[in-house]
Amino acid sequence: MIVLENQVLDTLFNHRSIRNYQDKKLTNHQISQLLQAAQQASTSQFEQQFSVISVTDPAKLQVIADVTTYDLVKNAGHYFLFVADQHRNSQILKHIDSNVDTTNLHSTDKLLASIHDVDLALQSMLTAAESMGLGGVIMGSIYNDVDKIIDTFKLPELTFPVLGLALGYPDENPEIKPRITSEIIHYENEYNDQIDYNELTNYDNQVHAYYANRKHSAREESFTHHLMHDLKQSPVRKGILPALKRQGFLKF
Ligand SMILES: Cc1cc2nc3c(=O)[nH]c(=O)nc-3n(C[C@H](O)[C@H](O)[C@H](O)COP(=O)(O)O)c2cc1C
């Protein structure tokens, strides 16, 4: 546990994903506070281009568990599906003027804006949850079968599932995963292509020690080994681009 000068930094610096939860649901009050935190995040052009689906139906949680291969979904205190959403604004605009041309909402620009909105809202929610003594994990593994997610949650044109977020009362206390030294990722005024491989080796050793010493599923692993392993993983999920186009995005 790192002790810091204020509670926000304390929460941020002590982040780690939590994948095991006590058998205890979040209250409506907690859920509404979490949504408020998510909604107060910055939002591209003040257009609030995201939606959040609370997944409470056990059959739908099972679909997510099957798609993601994570059973933890069913044990979480609450599960949120975050959706990039230009559909709602399209509806609102058509309500105001039934002849309005909403072509612009199909652009790459608007897709990126809605994904930015999701990511910022979701991270705010996760940090808020952690500040409340909860823990959680972001889940990109919904992309294993994005069509199934779109169908299950009846996602209309101009929406796209971006990430899941499982939250709950922690039933584990994992170590904090070390991050790469900021010298490697922070540059001044221009991109620095010269990687300090000595620093990288130090970081690899840190990650190796983290995996070797951690209480749950200790293993032989380093950052560079992980990168190489991930690169060679196959098959890469291929359904994402066609699904984005089917949902009406990336028209130009
Ligand atoms: C976009 C995104 C998708 C992720 N998807 C998954 C996932 O599907 N399953 C999972 O267990 N963790 C997932 N994670 C969590 C990362 O594995 C985790 O943040 C990373 O290993 C660092 O560990 P930490 O969060 O404990 O510091 C995801 C994180 C992000 C940002």
UniProtKB/TrEMBL annotation:
Coiled coil: none
Domain Nitroreductase stretches: 14-169
Pfam families noted in UniProt: Nitroreductase
InterPro entries named in the record: Flavin_OxRdtase_Frp (IPR016446), Nitroreductase (IPR029479), Nitroreductase-like (IPR000415)
Record has Acyltransferase as a keyword: no
Keywords: Flavoprotein, FMN, NADP, Oxidoreductase
Superkingdom of the source species: Bacteria
Membrane-traversing stretches: none
Family: Belongs to the flavin oxidoreductase frp family.
Name of the protein in question: Nitroreductase family protein
Species per Swiss-Prot/TrEMBL record: Apilactobacillus xinyiensis
